[in-house]
Specification:
By secondary structure, the protein is mainly α. The protein contains 13 helices and 2 strands; from the N terminus they run αααααααααααββαα.
């Protein structure tokens, strides 16, 4: 196996680059779309070039943060730095440079709190462990093996549940959180394990887990973009992924041996939770890959733009409620007035933005709408 010298600065830089490329990949779709809405005529090939650029930047960002960064430092610091870089870059690019999104003072403060917490993480968080050179030895610890299997089982079961049907929102959020946090954590874990002298069988197994977990994570993003309110889910998702990765770092990677300050480490996660709490009280979706207008839904609309099938039905498991998602544009389906997923999400986001305080926002997170029926 290739020997990589541990380096925290390189680990931090690669994680941040992944987050920056994430924002850039969305910006290349957002700018042409904004110009088209302003009435500027765009050549027919530009959306396809933008889509290709989006995919390339997504791939480079994923390789940087989800693979290479784990080779130079603790996997538990990759997720916080990645999400923090995404949030901060999104604020700068979409809020200050392009002006395509409006950021309230609360949203800005929430972003800054998360960024400051991430900076503090680099001071009090786990350092490098040069003596870790055998993944089998690490996983043979009972607690590490049990936790790894739990993550694997959680990823598989949650994915099967997502494929089966679409649930009421509170259940959908819970399943999506499990699917995304478990798949992301496994993806980072096996990436790091590639360098720790795995046997051929273990290496092949980890490669399969790497590919499958990445596919599941992407699939969960697509499901999320059409089934849950983004302003509710996005901050919770970031918090869940960061916490699950931190637990994995302690149990599997033995971060407890190299944490500089437990008090500071705990306070960092309190800061991250507070920042996400501030973001939950706002209506806009900050994590660009899940951006309701320029993220996966926009990519999907470009891909299937030339096909006659514009709508698809997702069965709801509660009562007779059905969800119709119009990927292209809103139109009459022949069944009377059709309410699209986009409109539903817009109303849900508007409702959450009208909450007078964050307590109401958190309470509404697990409440099922009783009067807003989608037909």
């Amino acid at each position: 196996m290739v020997d990589f010298t541990q380096s925290l600065p390189i680990c931090y830089a690669l994680s941040a680059i992944g987050g920056i490329l994430e924002v850039g990949s969305t910006a290349v779709l957002a700018v042409p779309d904004a110009r088209e809405k302003e009435g500027v005529h765009l050549p027919w090939w530009l959306p396809r070039v933008a889509l290709a650029s989006n995919v390339i930047m997504q791939l480079l960002g994923s390789l940087s943060a989800n693979l290479f960064a784990t080779w130079f430092g603790p996997v538990s610091v990759v997720a916080p730095i990645y999400f923090s870089a995404t949030l901060l870059t999104n604020l700068i690019v979409f809020g200050f440079i392009l002006g395509l999104e409006y950021f309230t003072r609360i949203m800005m403060v929430g972003t800054y709190v998360i960024a400051i917490g991430t900076i503090l993480l680099q001071v009090v968080g786990p350092g490098v462990q040069e003596d870790q050179d055998d993944i089998v030895e690490l996983l043979l610890h009972p607690s590490a093996f049990i936790w790894f299997i739990l993550l694997l089982v959680a990823m598989i079961i949650s994915t099967l549940l997502l494929i089966r049907t679409v649930y009421e929102e509170k259940k959908q959020i819970a399943i999506l959180l499990i699917a995304r946090s478990s798949s992301y954590t496994l993806n980072l874990t096996v990436s790091r394990a590639f360098l720790l002298n795995p046997t051929f069988l273990i290496l092949v197994t980890f490669v399969i887990i790497k590919v499958v977990s990445g596919a599941i994570y992407t699939y969960a993003i697509v499901v999320q973009s059409t089934t849950v309110t983004q302003s509710k889910f996005v901050p919770l998702n970031a918090t869940a992924i960061i916490l699950v990765n931190a637990i994995t770092g302690v149990i599997i990677w033995q971060d407890w041996r190299v944490i500089s300050s437990w008090t500071g480490y705990i306070c960092v996660f309190l800061l991250l939770a507070l920042g996400c709490d501030l973001l939950l009280s706002s209506a806009n979706n900050l994590l660009t890959n899940e951006n309701a207008e320029y993220g996966v839904k926009k990519r999907a609309s470009i891909i299937i733009e030339s096909t006659p099938l514009r709508e698809f039905q997702l069965a709801r498991s509660f009562g007779t409620r059905n969800l119709y998602a119009d990927i292209g544009s809103n139109r009459d389906t022949g069944r009377g007035t059709s309410t699209t997923t986009h409109n539903y999400l817009s109303r849900a986001v508007s409702d959450i933005s009208q909450k007078e305080n964050r307590r109401e926002a958190w309470k509404s997170l697990f409440s099922t709408p009783e009067t807003d029926v989608i037909t």
